[in-house]
Design goal:
The structure is a single chain. The termini are far apart. Strands 1-2-4-3-5 form a five-stranded mixed sheet. It has helices spanning 11-14, 33-49, 62-67, 109-130, 165-168; strands spanning 53-57, 90-95, 134-138, 149-153, 160-162. Helices cover 31% and strands 14% of the residues. It has one domain (12-168): Muramoyl-pentapeptide Carboxypeptidase, domain 2 (2-Layer Sandwich), CATH 3.30.1380. Helix 2 (33-49) crosses helix 4. The structure holds zinc ion (ZN). Zinc ion (ZN) binds at residues 22, 24-25, 27, 61, 63-64.
Length: 171
């Protein structure tokens, strides 16, 4: 099923929506209110950051979620039973560091990686201010070239943060 992308001008990070469908089977669902709200808030976040925020994961079928080691109740999961009775949606993204909101740093690769991770924490703080309720920020590992990343969702209920002690401290 084709994914309908709401109006959003930063197609450098939204792309044509293909990054938001499940990479293994192309699963998605027609846009729900929560999906639209997510994209709207993400555009606001991107406008504030004034640098690229690149989506690396959106919808996942249950099999793909297991394959990538996602949480069993992950907001990424596109559940089929009962069909489309939930409107869970989440994105994982990598934030570019060339934002005017980042002060320049010098240092070795490890230090720059730490600064890159802290840029994700800055974005997470703003994401919480504008209404995201599920916020995970992962450090990555420069020695393995695993980039820092940020998970965002609009789960009902209270704010939940995870992924690193800096992310947990945002609550
Ligand atoms: Zn799949």
């Amino acid at each position: 099923m084709a994914l309908i992308i709401p109006q959003s001008h930063n197609f450098d990070w939204l792309g044509d929506g293909t990054r938001l469908v499940c990479p293994c089977c192309g699963s998605a669902r027609p846009a729900t209110e929560r999906f639209r709200h997510h994209i709207e808030l993400k555009q606001a976040l991107r406008d504030w950051w004034d640098a690229s925020i690149t989506d690396t994961s959106g919808f996942r079928c249950p099999a793909y979620n297991r394959k990538v080691g996602g949480a069993p109740k992950s907001q990424h999961i596109l559940r089929r039973v009962p069909h489309d009775q939930n409107d869970d949606f989440a994105t994982d993204s990598v934030v570019k560091i060339d934002s005017p909101r980042v002060t320049r740093v010098r240092g070795n690769k490890a230090k720059l990686y730490e600064r890159w991770f802290m840029a994700h924490i800055q974005v997470a703080e703003r994401a919480i201010e504008i209404g995201f309720t599920g916020v995970g920020v992962y450090k990555g590992d420069y020695s393995k070239e695993i980039t820092p990343s940020i998970h965002l969702d609009l789960r009902p209920g209270e704010l939940v943060t995870w992924g690193s002690k800096e992310a947990e401290a945002l609550k």
